[in-house]
Amino acid sequence: EVSITKFPADERKIIAKAHDKYKKARAGIINTRHGQIHTPAFMPVGTKGTVKAMLPESVQTTGADIILGNTYHLMLQPGAKRVFKLGGLHKFMNWSKPLLTDSGGFQVMSLSKLRKITEEGVIFNSHIDGSKFMLSPESSTEIQYLLGSTITMAFDECTPYPSTYEQAKSSMELTSRWAKRSRKAFYSRDGYGQFGIIQGSIYNDLRLKSALDLIELDFEGYAIGGLAVGEGQELMFKVLDYAPDLLPINKPRYLMGVGKPADIIGAVQRGIDMFDCVIPTRSGRNGQAFTKYGVVNIRNSKYKEDNTPLEEDCLCPACKNYTKAYLHYLVKVKEILGAMLMTWHNLMYFQKLMLRIREYIAQGKDFDFIS
Ligand SMILES: O=c1[nH]cnc2c(CCNCC3CCCCC3)c3[nH]c(NCc4cccs4)nc3cc12
Ligand SMILES: [Zn+2]
Q1: Could you say which ligand is closest to the alpha carbon of residue 274?
Q2: How far apart are the C-alpha atoms of 103 and 99, rounded to whole Å?
Q3: Which atom in ligand 1 lies closest to the alpha carbon of residue 102?
Q4: Cα separation of 184 and 307, whole Å?
Q5: Are 29 and 36 in contact (CB under 8 A)?
Q6: N or C: fewer beta carbons within 10 Å in the chain?
Q7: Degrees to nearest 5, angle at CA 218 with 276 and 180
Q8: Is 197 close to ligand 1, i.e. is its CB under 6 Å away?
């Protein structure tokens, strides 16, 4: 007779866990006024109205559906009102696809000198000329409206890591009050959206309360903030093992500031749809190329006579038309073309990674090994 051998309980758990691992990954499309966003999506960072060292049409050829605009820099120079008068950020920088602008809050904390956080908002001096500015839920939301952003981010406070439970609780509660004011200040139009940002650090009850507060405000999407701030991948994944599930399943989930390929893969497996990170652009300019063989530090002298491309099957200009020896030289002598080609390759690499992840999810296949 056929006897069905039952796996011992702990083995069953492991097998279930493995399948669980891919259950939360989802591939989808976000429809906006400026076009569609295929998710999981990687959003290249455009700081001062440009993805550094890239033409917008080149960013488009890498496959990016959406890029980030930087509220902090643009409000200081050239100023949100001027960008509005000139037709908005899309026209100003000749990018017609979706634009997500951050609230400016995170950048104020990391870039400006002399700043003061009050219930009202953040008062700070411009790092350019020291003049005084105030960013609040209302002013940040208005600035993002003037920029014409497709997706506006709520004004939050990124809770530092590590934080005590009390610190994380009061910070999260401030973010909830600011989210309410951001939502009230948002001028909602068809095809435009506003995302709330949940905080709560590594404390699951605070993460839950943050999610409940923000779900009440019925945002078009939700970001998970307060991660990738030094807690490390293990702790970040521990929070991601439950935090995405606290958010509405039918709305986009954006993990802010992440990340390296392995971080992105792990986060997609836990239900994240959108990512932003300066790594491909910033590290590209610093001579680091992401390849299927791992990260290549092109400045290393071992490449000075390497007549092969970064990746033989990559379709980017750096790989199609140039060698590692040439890239090594350009980066060493700080030629602008070096920054351009390295950035182009890295953005192509990240978009190819996202495309393969989307394909694997659509085919119900595991995508652990890609990275
Ligand atoms: O809770 C958060 N609230 C708001 N923003 C956050 C950001 C900034 C995301 N990129 C914005 C871009 C806007 C346009 C210009 C470029 C940034 C984070 N970045 C990281 N880690 C990466 C980090 C970057 C620097 C220090 S940690 N964790 C983050 C957490 C939060
Ligand atoms: Zn390439």
Answers
A1: 1
A2: 13
A3: 13
A4: 58
A5: yes
A6: N
A7: 85
A8: yes
The length of the chain in residues reads 371
- Do strands 35-39 and 288-291 pair parallel, antiparallel, or not at all (unpaired)? unpaired
pTM equals 0.95
**Cβ 65 under 6 angstroms from ligand 1:** no
Tokens (6 digits) for 135: 């960013």
Ligand 1 centroid to Cα of residue 320, in Å, is 33
DSSP 92-155: HTT--S-EEE--SHHHHHHH-EEEEE-SS-EEEE-TTT--EEEE-HHHHHHHHHHHT-SEEEP-
Two tokens at 143?
């600035």
Q: Which amino acid is present at 174?
A: L
Residue 153's SS3 state is strand
Q: Is the peptide bond before 309 cis (omega within 30 degrees of 0)?
A: no
Q: Which of 316, 318, 314, 317 is nearest to 328 (CA)?
A: 318
**pLDDT confidence of 6, banded at 50, 70, 90?**
low
pLDDT tens digits for range 277-298: 999 999 999 999 999 999 999 9
Q: Is the pLDDT of residue 14 over 90?
A: no
Work out the mean pLDDT of the chain and round it to a whole number: 94
- pLDDT score of 5: 55
Phi-psi region of 228 (alpha: psi -120 to 50; beta: other; left: phi over 0): left
Query: Is residue 158 in contact with ligand 1, taking CB distance under 6 Å?
Result: yes
- Percent of the chain whose pLDDT exceeds 90: 89
Q: Is the CB of 261 under 6 A from ligand 1?
A: no
Report which bound ligand comes closest to the CA of 345.
2
Tell me the three-class secondary structure of 75-92, residue by residue. HHCCCHHHHHHCCCHHHH
Q: Is the confidence at residue 114, as pLDDT, over 80?
A: no
Read off the tokens for 176: 């909830």
Q: Tell which residue, 279, 337, 356, 342, has the closest CA to residue 311.
A: 342
pLDDT given at position 110: 85
Confidence band of 251 (pLDDT split at 50, 70, 90): very high
Say what the pLDDT of residue 13 is.
62
Task: Please give the torsion angle defined by the CA atoms of residues 334, 337, 338 and 341, in that order, rounded to the nearest 10 degrees.
Answer: 160
Enumerate residues with CB within 5 Å of ligand 2 (an ion): 314, 316, 318-319, 345
* pLDDT at position 113 over 90: no
- ipTM strictly over 0.90? yes
Give the residue-averaged pLDDT of 177-190.
98
Query: How many Cα atoms within 13 Å fall on the side-chain side of residue 328?
Result: 18
